[in-house]
Every structure is written in structure tokens, then in C-alpha cells.
Amino acid sequence: MDLACGSGILATLLARQGWDVVATDVSAAACESTELTARANCAVVTVQRARQLDGLRTASVDLIVANPPFHEGAAKDSSVTRLMLEAAPTVLRPGGELWLVFNSHLPYLTWLRDLVGPTSVVARDRHYTVTRSRTRGVS
């Protein structure tokens, strides 16, 4: 699942690697952009307009990837991402993973460790951080 899919780059990359991908975003424009990105790259992505993880069954997803938003309009606001991180462990299957790419100055690394589970930094520079989190109770 590509959550808050934006332009659909992450969803398309996963689909081209053989994953069955569902991409969601609250924005109709983002959903349309994802469809166009997938089509232009000969990838099959199911796109759904949805807010957060609404409608997903407990333990129904193997992998969530996201480059989550940190603005509400023009204002800096990470509360939407915090809600997503609180819900992610519920929808992930045992052994499921959450991969995030985000601006390095944001507090997401601490949130991931507190809310999701063991988290490692896969890549980081002064601008961006990529993390891999696994649900608690899974080694």
C-alpha cells in the first residue's frame, strides 16, 4: 500500500517489482496523478480515494510505504502523519513493514519507534530520511 500516494512514484515502483499495490490519497488530483504515473510506466496500481487507513481490515496489509504530508494548506502540521502512524500497526499483518521517507527535521523517527515498533534508518542525508519499521512482537 502506498499511503498518501501523491504522484504515485512509490506505488509504481512497487508494482513494477511485482507487488499488488493499492495507492490511496485524500486528494482527487493525487489519485489522478498516480493513475497517470502508473499508466506511463506500464504498471498496474489500484488507486482509491480515501483518508488515511479508513476502511482497511485489521492485519490486512503486508507493506505500507509513504512520503507523508507535513502541511495542512500552507501551515506546517504533522498531526495527519501521527494519526497514520498510530493506525499503521493495526492494519499491518504480523511481520508487516512500514517504510517512510520524510524530511529529516521532522519528529517521525521517535514517533515510529514509539507507535509502530522497531525502526531502523535505511538512508539519511541532511534533507531526507528513509526508515523501515516492523510491528512490535516481530523480530
Note down, in words, how this protein is organized.
The protein is α/β, with parallel strands linked by helices and 139 residues long. It has a single domain, classed as Rossmann fold. It is built from 4 helices and 9 strands. The protein has helices spanning 9-16, 28-40, 79-91, 108-115, and strands at residues 2-3, 21-25, 45-49, 61-66, 71-72, 75-76, 92-103, 119-124, 128-134. It has a 7-stranded mixed sheet with strand order 3-2-1-4-7-9-8, with helices on both faces. Strands 5-6 form a two-stranded antiparallel ribbon. α3 (79-91) packs parallel to α4 (108-115). The two termini are 22 Å apart. The relative contact order is 0.15.
Topology diagram in text:
Elements: E1 2-3, H1 9-16, E2 21-25, H2 28-40, E3 45-49, E4 61-66, E5 71-72, E6 75-76, H3 79-91, E7 92-103, H4 108-115, E8 119-124, E9 128-134
Parallel strand pairs: 1-2, 1-4, 2-3, 4-7
Antiparallel strand pairs: 5-6, 7-9, 8-9
Helix pairs in contact: 3-4
